[in-house]
Write a structure and sequence with these properties.
Layout lengths: L23 H18 L8 H10 L15 H5 L6 H6 L12 H14 L5 H7 L1 H8 L3 H8 L7 H8 L35 E5 L2 H6 L1 H13 L3 E5 L6 H5 L3 H20 L3 E4 L2 H14 L4 H9 E3 H11 L13 E4 L2 H4 L6 H7 L6 E4 L16 H18 L3 E4 L2 H12 L14 H8 L3
Parallel strand pairs: 1-2, 1-3, 3-4, 5-6, 5-7
Helix pairs in contact: 1-5, 11-21, 13-15, 14-15, 16-18, 19-20
Length: about 450
């Protein structure tokens, strides 16, 4: 038997269309096989709440082993998984190509896929996943929606907690009346003297940058234009990560086929495809090809896709950056998002911000505790803050004027954690995406 963790992990396609995938007895058998391996290892005990729940469940059982744990008690373990992939990418010694073939996140996905097939997902959970629909509905009433969703609103937030199960104190993304795609016609002048002039890229807007924070996309476009890159903004639909988290794999496959088909013409013309949020980059690069492995459009898109920080760092290394970067007024706390780490590309956000002259950078590579829609739920919010407390504590003690993360949800969650920790320096009023920090350094 080979020693674990001596080879790079490899992900296998998700056989979601195989009838055995939703066979309850076969799923239970696989859960028990994997959980028993995890119980004997326990290397992942500090990653998220799934593993402590699993180990406590086993330790409290009659035999102290998995054989006396009832299958119905597995659900809290599954519910605590945020599909961050950190166990698979950084901790587990038994992932493929090891013969144990252990992929904990995709096993949790399989369990949720069965729940989805059995119509067990709540109405509220389904509504939270409809990011495109919600963004379109909120757009004409952005001000009213932001007033109602503000965590300081003691009138509406208790109602939301009751109706949707969203914790009344969880900070929620804001909406904009003018989306990123609405602003696509505002094309910044391309610097023809930049070393990288001649590059072309499509910005895949992502639902978050499009509806919730268009400034991320605008900052990215300005930085790329300063560096000679011609850009287009394209947004066929959400990448499906919200549905992926709930096990609705068919919806993800539908999104993959739609987006990849529309993007194919740009790929064939030599455009790079840039995702503005790490979760979306992860879906396009890795998850989609595992869900629809025979779709040639998805394969082409996967090869052409880059994370925004990854793309700018490549410009710096290949052609060199355009002049004009200046030191910031104060340092930056940078959180490395889990879905950026799961792309296996290194700390590109760190590399990016180190390109700013004299930048005082504090880097934190640890889970924020948010986990997409998981962290805003009533039953998870306080747990998420507890998981993210080490990150918040480090960020608070660093006492820098900027807090940044490639994951905007994680960034706001970190700010909320910082607000609960005593410190002399004020907590920044808002968080930033790394590309927004980079744009500031350019004076854009």
């Amino acid at each position: 038997m080979a020693e674990g963790s001596l080879e790079a992990p490899t992900r296998l396609p998700v056989p979601w269309q195989n009838p055995d995938f939703h066979d309850e007895a076969m799923l239970d058998e696989e859960l028990r096989r994997v959980f028993d391996i995890c119980h004997g290892c326990r290397r992942c005990f500090n990653l998220c709440d799934s593993f402590p729940r699993l180990f406590d469940l086993i330790d409290r059982s009659e035999s102290g082993e998995l054989d006396t744990v009832e299958s119905k008690d597995f659900k809290p373990v599954v519910d605590a998984c945020t599909l961050c992939d950190m166990c698979f990418m950084t901790k587990c010694p038994y992932v493929p190509p090891h013969e144990f073939n252990l992929d904990f996140p995709h096993l949790m996905l399989r369990y949720r896929s069965l729940e989805n097939a059995q119509k067990k997902l709540s109405w509220a959970d389904r509504q939270l996943t409809e990011t495109d629909r919600n963004g379109k509905l909120a757009k004409p009433f952005a001000g009213l929606c932001n007033w109602a969703s503000n965590e300081k609103n003691t009138l509406t937030r208790p109602l939301m907690e009751t109706a949707l199960g969203v914790h009344r104190e969880a900070r929620l993304p804001r909406y904009h009346g003018t989306t990123f795609t609405d602003r696509a016609g505002d094309v910044p002048d391309v610097n023809t003297k930049a070393p990288a002039h001649g590059r072309k890229a499509v910005l895949y807007a992502t639902c978050f940058s499009n509806y919730n924070d268009p400034e991320i996309g605008i900052a990215a476009r300005k930085v790329l234009a300063r560096n000679g890159v011609e850009t287009e903004v394209v947004y066929p639909s959400c990448c499906g990560m919200p549905q992926f988290e709930q096990g609705d794999i068919a919806r993800v496959a539908e999104a993959a086929a739609k987006v990849a088909a529309e993007m194919r013409a740009w790929v064939d013309k030599g455009y790079a495809i840039i995702a503005l949020v790490p979760s979306c980059a992860l879906m396009l690069k890795f998850e989609w090809p595992l869900i629809v492995p025979d779709d040639d459009n998805v394969k082409a898109l996967s090869t052409a896709t880059r994370d925004i920080d990854e793309y700018i760092v490549d410009i710096a290394k290949t052609e060199g950056l355009a002049e004009g970067l200046a030191p910031l007024d104060g340092g930056v706390v940078l959180h490395i998002a889990c879905h950026a780490r799961a792309q296996n590309i290194g700390q590109k956000s760190t590399e990016l911000l180190k390109l700013i002259p004299g930048n005082d950078l504090k880097v934190i590579e640890r889970c924020s505790g948010h986990g997409g829609s998981w962290g805003i739920k009533k039953e998870n919010f306080e747990v998420g803050l507890k998981i993210g407390k080490p990150v918040a504590r480090q960020a608070r003690s660093a006492a820098k004027p900027y807090v940044a993360s490639g994951c905007p949800l994680a960034a706001d969650h970190i700010l909320q954690g910082m607000e609960r920790i005593e410190g002399d320096a004020p907590v920044p009023a808002r968080a930033h995406h790394p590309v927004q920090i980079f744009a500031k350094a350019y004076g854009l």
